User: Fold these one by one.
Assistant:
Number 1:
Amino acid sequence: MAIKKLLQPFIESYRVFVWCSRFPGFTRWLFARGNRLQISRHQVHIPKLPPALQGLRVLHLTDFHAADFMEERRLEEILRISQSLKPDLIALTGDYIGYTPKYYADRIRRIASLKAPLGVFAVLGNHDRWQPFHNRIVQDFEAAGVTVLQNANRFIERSGARLCMMGVDDHEEGQPNLDAAAHGSHQAHARILLAHNPDTLFSLNGHAPHLVLTGHTHGGQINFPVFGPLTYFCKYVDQTGPGLSRSNGTYIYNSRGLGMSMLPVRIRCRPEIGLFTLDRKAE
Amino acid sequence: MTTPNSRNQTLRSAIVVSIALVLIFLVVLLVWQDSLTLEGEARIMGISIHITATGTNRDKINEAINVAFDRMRQIDQRMSDYREDSEISKIKRAAGKAPVAVSHETFAMIQKAIEYSKQTDGAFDMTVRPLVALWRDRTEEGKSPAQIPPNNAPPSEQEILATLRLVGYDKIVLDPAGQTVWLPERGMSIDLGAIAKGYAVDEAIRVLRAHGVENSLVNAGGDLYAAGINEDGKPWTVLLRDPYEKDRSKIRVWKDLKLHLTDKAVTTSGNYERYILIGGQRFNHILDPRTGRPVKALDSVTVVAGSCLEADVLSTVITVVGVQSGLELLKQFEGASFYAIPEFQSPGFDRHLEEP
């Protein structure tokens, strides 16, 4: 009897939730508000950038967690807006699938359908690495023309100018090797590093990419006023905060990502598509 | 003295109130105003121009909108063909007399227009004005019966041929060193009306972006550019109205079209809004500069392209050259597509119609 009385307020609160669920449209709207997409545009100033790379547009997409809380329609919308922005190059920094491996093949196929004149480059995230079939993600991406960079790099030539795309394995679940990823990269006029988890950057070892694109943190996903997010799950971003930061001439970007993990809610932390334009730094 | 019963009651109320407060806190967070959409309207180039812009700082957005309008006014001041003080009017007044020094911007725009004329084999020609004047003088639209001559008829073959002698982009003399423009024949004219509006829209977008406003929609009487996405995080939705809405005698082939656009411009050329009426007959207001006659082929052409300037040129030219030549022309303009009436859709246009 006493237990029932003790539980009574919780039962009443539950009734409030049930009553709220009579208005699914309102509830959906409420959660959809926090999940409205944004496009974040940034200029990346690089000294002595050759004219052939001036104005180059790099599109950054990360942390889709497709199939967890991302509907097919939503994914299509993101891909369509991304293509409309006419990037020269697309960078993907992991967590394509979430906890649910459901629809995996379909979601990877859709993401891999992205096209850019200078190519689409990807690294894997911890959620991708958790999947027993993560090698298939690499195969499916490669088969569709997406270059997966696992501690490796690729050079892109444009009218004599060289751009180096580097990719490092996931910090938590993979075996990151920045030295291997950056091997020979100093010969390039512009160097872009893709890393899922910003904690990888603690061991940058003097490699100096001009731009580093990262994900993983979702910007905290739930961002309280004054207090900020509960956690970023990342020591590096604890220090720098999400978004754009500078370190020894390197632009480091930690994206809020596109999807959601654990909870189907984003508060004051809208999902984003990043668009970076390379610009010659004034001498 | 409090009884155990009333203590329970108090505890219960406290828990319910706490949970309610947490719920309210969550709702407040979720509806937190993290961006806003502002609109501005101004009358420039003789039309009403609307700018819709989203961002986080009200003052910054308002400032950006005002500077964008100022930029459009500056372009109008230089390139308008209605303003007596515009550089274009000065060039026209000096036709057959002397070269006129113009601003770097107007000079570059005329050069660009000449490039487009070459690219379209003269289907686009900014010197078409004398022909337009010849046809517009005969229009009965907006005139009282007393103002219309008794035997009002379309211009004769001789009249058209005589006027064609004053038309031709290749007759314009440009001096890059002195930044001068010269129309060698008296009666010649330059009209940037077909593209200046599109150019002004592109410039307004450039200014908005330079002020940090990345998501905006600039609409200059149907010439519009949709930059980025709207406040809901979706592509901008643009409604194109049914051209036959007011004319029930035509078969309705096109219901209102909804386009979903990100970083794209759209313009429409057609005779359903403007036309020349002679002897009760309706002629398209767009003339073929090569024949001197109004075009009959297409009632309306809507072009989606990467810039409003390009869309303006393409919609004007495709109305003149028709669907097949239009498709050939599209190959030179990456990412452009069009919708024409009588109903025709170029490859790629349906992409903008899909519901996101």
Number 2:
Amino acid sequence: MVTDFSVSILAAGSTTLLLAICSIVLATVIGLAGAFAKLSENKILKRTASVYTFVIRGIPDLVWMLLLFYSLPSFLNQTADALGWDIHFEFPPIGAAIATLGLIFGAYMTETFRTALLNIPRGQIEAALAYGLPRTRIFLRIILPQLTRLALPGFTNNWLVLAKATALASLIGLHDVMFRAKGAAEATSMPFTFFLVAAGFYLSLTLCSMVGLSMVAKRTSAGERELAR
Amino acid sequence: MNWNVIAENAPLYLAGTKLTLLLAFTSLAASFLLALPLAFLRNSAHPGIRYSVSTYTLLFRGTPLLVQLFLIYFGLAQFGLIRETFIWPWLSSPLVCVLLTFILNTTAYSTEIFAGALRSIPVGELEAARAYGLSRFKQATRILVPAMLTRSLPLYGNEMIMMLHATSLASTVTLMETTGVARRITLDNYIQFEPYVTAAGIYLTITFVIVSAFQIVQRRFAGYLEPRST
């Protein structure tokens, strides 16, 4: 019985991983846009990005998740009713969870990428401009390779926190590792055993990520170490 | 919009906010006292001590807080032995379980923050203290601890905010803090929008106050560590 339930808990790992990967991709895209907005000359963009990071980081993850899963559809439905439209909004838990984690970690990524961008020597971009490189090529050839290296420690940190934050999605009904563990705990009289299985899953996810990302770090900073010798 | 429901329930929100602050500050105060010695043990020359502390921090930083909370609140009941001891009346109370979990969790993070700061203190400061013949205890209280704390201010400020936000998880084990109150009002009144937005506003305000206070503290005590404009 313990084995059956454990297998079912660990099988939900694919849902947890799917949620974590979709969220980190969304967060990276938002983070890049946010970092460029914060560093841009445009005052409105700058102000919007600052308000975004402040509001996101001022409210707990769980409250954000409840806001996006319960409050937002309710607000949209009320508005639609008031306008006399015949539509009903309801988000699936996985969608609401990806949107929430993407938005939250987008704010943390914005800060990570902003610091990394500031650490790329200005002269390199000026040189590229002087050579007449178009903006997209400057981004792909000059900024992106260095951004990857400089932002990697912060990215790793954000990923580790995000991977654990996915457990909150069980509270809005997503059938992830945590949800199955709670189900198994309630069905048997062994809550400790099954929450421990869940804990083991998250711990191994953390450890694997740490090993994997440190290998990436070694690779991206290969040139740096050569120079530092 | 049903904002009058929120106005009617203002006392509930007030009580919820008080509980949120109580949970956050009790956990932070207890973990601060625990993390100070643990940070020294984390950097101990004795590998056994060093590894046991780092195993503790790895376990608590590598798993979600929600799992830890459920392990302690729901999980401990699995063991008949614990249920027969004198500590059971306490361990079956959600408030005690929540505080225990939060303290264990935030102590792990604070220990790593302090231990990291300890490692970044220039060796010269310690050498100077030794040259002056300070006892090991005096070295710690006069040199190491103050230097460690000023260096950890930015990260510790983040940890305080994280802890404040983590208190929202207490609502999952029936505690009526800010999020729990919001949840209760949504269920009682069949409105989904206003209660959570109000809760969000409360957290945003508390965060703003803490961040502003921290900036003042940091300018006052850690100003000398900032990069100087030439």
